[in-house]
Amino acid sequence: MLIKKPPAWRMPEREATPEAVFYNRRRFLNSIAGGAALLAGGALVSGARAAAGDPSAGRYPAPRNLRFRLDRELTDEADAGTYNNFYEFGSHKRISEAAQALQIRPWTVTFDGMVEQPRSVGIDSLLQAMQLEERLYRFRCVEAWSMAVPWTGFPMRALLDFARPLSSAKYVVMQTFNDAKMASGQKQFWYPWPYTECLTIAEAANELTFLVTGVYGKPLPKQFGAPLRLATPWKYGFKSVKSIVRFQFTDQRPVTFWEKIQPQEYGFWANVNPKVAHPRWSQAEERVLGSDNKVPTLMYNGYAEQVAGLYTGMAGEKLFM
Ligand code: MTE
Prior knowledge:
Blueprint: H1 11-16, H2 19-31, H3 33-40, H4 42-51, H5 77-80, E1 108-113, E2 119-122, H6 123-128, E3 133-140, E4 145-155, H7 156-163, E5 171-176, E6 196-200, H8 201-204, E7 210-215, E8 218-219, E9 229-231, E10 244-250, H9 257-261, E11 285-288, E12 294-296, H10 304-307
Parallel strand pairs: 1-10, 4-11
Antiparallel strand pairs: 1-2, 3-4, 4-7, 5-6, 5-10, 7-8, 7-9, 11-12
C-alpha cells in the first residue's frame, strides 16, 4: 500500500491559522529543523543546507502577502525539491544533489546596459535593500507538469527602482552564471551558455513579476536556482531563469536560451495558453507534481486578470510558445 506522508505545507492549515501564530510556530519548527532534516531526508536536508552559512537566513520566514493566494494545495517540498530543470547540472530532473556544487557566496549581481549608472553589488547588499515577502504561486512547465509553491522574495518592480534603467530601455535580459568548472552541464558545448531570459520592461514592472530568494520559508535551496531567480507565474517555467548574475537593460530584443536551441518550439513570450499546443504535445492539461492527477490548464495559468492587458494589440506576435 502506498503511504503518503502529509505535506508539511498543506494549505488548509495555513489558511486556518492566524498569521502571527503560524509564523511563531514556524520559528519553533525552524529551530528544530536540524533534527527534522535528519528524519525527513531529501529536500528538507537541502533546505537546511541552504540556510546553513547563508548570511540572509535570519530573514526567513518572511511575512506572507495575502494578495497572492491559491486555489490548490501546495506541492510537497520534497517533490518540488527533487524534480528540477537546471541544465547547468544535467539535462534530467534529478539534479538536486549535483546542484549542491553551486557556490552562492560570494555572489555578485551586475546591472548594466541602458541604466543611469552601471554597477555591481554583492547579493547580501542587494537583499538588504529589499523587503522580503512570501507569495503562493502556481508554476506551469512547458512540459505539461505543474506545482504550487510558497516563494519568498521581492517584486521585480523594486529591482527596477534599484537598477534605474533609462526610459529608452525596452527589455531586461537576465543571465545565469557561466562556470563549467562548477557546473558540469556547462561543458556541454552545444548549449548556448550562459542561460539567458528576457522580459519587456512592462512585464518586469507587472505586480506578479517576482524575484525569488527563498522557498518553503527558507533561503532558496541550490537546485531551485539560488541565490536569486525569477518567477513569472503566467509564463511557462523556462522563463524563470535561475541563479542570476546580471540584469542588462537594452532596446533590442535578444534571442534567449531555448529560442536559440529550438525556435520552432520555444519563443520569446511563452505565455501559458491551454488552446495553443506545443508542436509535440497538448497544453490543455497538466500533471500535478507529486500526484497522478491531471487538471485543466488555465489561460495565463490563471493570472489573466493581472497580465492579459500587457498583450493587447499584439495579435501578430507568437504570444503562446
Ligand atoms: N534556469 C537556468 N539557469 N537553467 C535551467 O536549466 N530551467 C528552466 C527554469 N530556469 C533552467 C532555468 C526550466 S525549463 C524550468 S521548468 C524551471 O527553471 C524549473 O524550475 P524548478 O527546478 O524550480 O522547478
